[in-house]
Amino acid sequence: MNFKVVSTEIETIKKLTKDVIEITFAVKNSELEIAIKPGQFLSIKFTDKDGKQGWRAYSVLVNEGGNLQLCIKKVPNGKATGWLFELSENEKVEIMLPLGHFGFPDKLKDRIIFLATGTGLVPILALLENLSQQKFSRENFYGKMIFGVRTEN
Description:
Elements: E1 5-17, E2 20-26, H1 31-35, E3 41-47, E4 53-64, E5 67-73, H2 79-84, E6 92-99, E7 111-117, H3 122-133, E8 142-148
Parallel strand pairs: 7-8
Antiparallel strand pairs: 1-2, 1-6, 2-5, 3-4, 3-6, 4-5
């Protein structure tokens, strides 16, 4: 199976916590802007500290207004996240066009329950944002979000 790979530039990197960053890529008028749907993920090509290359998948947080955002948690001794946390703004990276089919069914049921922890919240936030933009309303609709986090204690 052949996948489309494109090169894009990092626009901004924001440190959200000691081990979570938000990377924004400028994708206006590119294949990435058009191709990504809420709930999908991208694969980013990385080079580890030993010079070996590989691909890692990350859920898309936002794809609007010409910006593509990923929220990435640093994994201790992680090959890809170690590399990503060392990148700077304006650097180029290679991205494999989006994959995955996580999303709402065509006929949305009356009840939805989301369950997520940590950065696993990212694809759910993308879906909820998309749902709110569609001005979704249903009189007898019920939705619940259950979110878990680790604590120091």
